[in-house]
Amino acid sequence: MAINFDTALGIHPQALALREKRGELLAANLANADTPGYKARDLDFKSVLKQNMQLAQPMERTQANHLSIQRSLQSHVMYSNPMQASLDGNTVEANVEQAKYAENAVQYQASLQFVGGHFSELMMALRGQ
To answer: Which residue ranges traverse the bilayer (predicted)?
Structure first.
């Protein structure tokens, strides 16, 4: 009996890849908090994940270390509207971005734990326990 990791792991591999990309966007926002004219960006995580699940296609690998999520993400990357406008045109609000980054990190850890749990269950099944 073959093990299909796409069905065994559920949506968590896709969620991990999307959380990673969102973390990159949020980190870029924080790194450019003092850059004049920089526009803060974020990823609409729920809509991207929903779209990937509706297509029922696992994310494709174009190279051994890369996931091809760039094409599907470009339409879901949004610019943030600041609560308080900056005189230099920068829309990054450091406290808001830090909170988003921390929330994303916690959710990334949760997905990692789910994947680890699924692998543990598979290992137990293979051992016959």
So the answer is: none
Q: Is 62 in contact with 68 (CB distance < 8 Å)? A: yes
Average pLDDT, the chain: 81
pLDDT at 85 over 60: yes
**For the packed helices 12-31 and 94-127, what is the interaxial angle rounded to 10 degrees?**
160
How many CA atoms lie less than 13 Å away from 36 in the CB half-sphere?
2
% of the chain surpassing 70 pLDDT: 75
- Phi (first) and psi of residue 41, to 5 degrees: -125, 155
The Cα–Cα gap between 78 and 51 comes to 16
User: Could you give the CA distance from residue 48 to residue 15 in angstroms, rounded to a whole number?
Assistant: 9
Place of tokens 């450091």: 94
Q: What are the pLDDT digits (tens) for 32-81?
A: 999 999 999 998 878 777 776 665 555 555 555 554 455 556 667 889 88
Contacts of 54 (CB under 8 A, 6+ apart): none
